[in-house]
Structures are given as C-alpha cells and as structure tokens.
Amino acid sequence: MSFEFWEIFIPGLHFKMQLDLQTLLDKLIKFRDERDWAQFQTAKNLAISISLEAAELLEHFQWSTEDQDIPPDKREAMAEEVADILICLLLFAHKLNIDPVQAAQDKIEKNAQKYPADLVRGESDKLHIPNILFTNGELRRFDVKPYLDKGIFKQLKDIQLFKKVRPCLGSIQWEGVQDLCPDTLYIESEPITKQRIGTGNN
C-alpha cells in the first residue's frame, strides 16, 4: 500500500506526486484518535461523506463550459475537495479492511477483460451495439443497452458473453437463450447503409 513516486502527465504540466498512502492513513488515524472521532466514523457515515464531498467538487463545474479554463483560486478550492474525498475514502477503506491500491489494481484488470481495447478504443458507447445484416440487404445497428437491466438480459453486461451472439430463426440469440423478436430487432434498429448481399459492397 506504499509507493514512493508516480509520474503524472497532464498537458502543459508535468510534476511528480509523492504517494505514500500508509503514511497518510497513519496521520489521519492519529488526528482522528486525538479528537475521539472514531465513534462517529462508521462505514455508513464515511460512505455518505465521500458522496457529499464529491458533490462539492462537482459544484465547481456548475454552469461552466467543457473547455473553460480553471483559474488558480478555483483550482486551490478543488484541491481541498480532492483532499476531503481522499481522506474519507482512506478512512472508509481502513474501516472495512480494504486495500485501496490492490482494489484499484484488481478493478483495472477486471475492466481490461470487460472492455477490450480493440472493441472500445476511442468510443464510450460501442459495446452492446451489434451491426446486423438483414435479408433485404439492409445493414442496421441495434442498441441492446436498454435491455441490459431486464431479466436474463442482465447477463449480457459481460462483454465476453455478449460477443457469443449468433443468428437464430430470423433474429439473434445468445448462449443464455436471450433473444429478441425479429420485428423488435428491425423496428428498433437504425440503418447504417444499404448493401447487396453477396457483393461485399457497402
């Protein structure tokens, strides 16, 4: 849980950030215990505090444009919100005996499997939208995402399972027997282009 330095690269800015979470956590616990605040720092209270502090950080962006520069005084205020979030997060992880660094590493590995780079590079909504060639020669795109919170379709959030889709009886089907009505598949899909089957022309 202890690191010496991470290199941080930001356009127009390059600095080294010392990162020693264990030392920081020790200071937080000492600060807390000197004030007898452990009794108030339940997992629930800390989780709520993380959310509230994150909302305070978000508040700095209210009514701002995407490309608006952040002035130095606002950046300093944001740094304080970042500190509050990190403090609450470390205390929460400590309360539940979670190693946040290991948890983050595990999550990165899990996401690497869930979102393969060759499928999602440069796009945030490319997953779960297969292209389907219909017998009338139309190539259409169907967005499955609205179905992913319904019944057995929830299993298809696993991209590896989703990729096992296959044609079946005029529609498409997955290994978990999830399928869609052919009419639904056509009506709710969006045309990409027309192509003549067998010619390879797009």
**pLDDT average, as an integer?**
80
Sheet with most strands: strand arrangement = 3-4-7
C-alpha Rg (nearest Å): 24 Å
Q: How much of the sequence is in beta strands?
A: 15-25%
Distance from N terminus to C terminus (CA atoms, Å) equals: 53 Å
Shape: elongated
Number of helices: 7
Most strands sheet: 3 strands, antiparallel
What's the assembly state of these chains?
single chain
Features:
three-stranded antiparallel beta sheet, 7 strands, 202 residues, disordered N terminus, disordered C terminus, elongated, alpha+beta
Provide structural commentary.
With 202 residues, the protein is of the alpha+beta class. 42% of the residues lie in helices and 17% in strands. It is built from seven helices and seven strands; from the N terminus they run ββαααααββαββαβ. It has helices at 21-34, 43-59, 72-95, 100-114, 117-120, 159-162, 182-187; strands spanning 2-10, 13-20, 131-133, 138-141, 166-168, 171-173, 190-194. Strands 3-4-7 form a three-stranded antiparallel beta sheet, with no helix packed on it. Strands 1-2 form a two-stranded antiparallel sheet. Helix 1 (21-34) packs across helix 3 and helix 2 packs antiparallel against helix 3 (72-95). The longest helix is centred in the middle third of the chain and has 24 residues, at 72-95. It is elongated. It starts with a strand and ends in an 8-residue tail after the last strand. 6% of the residues are buried.
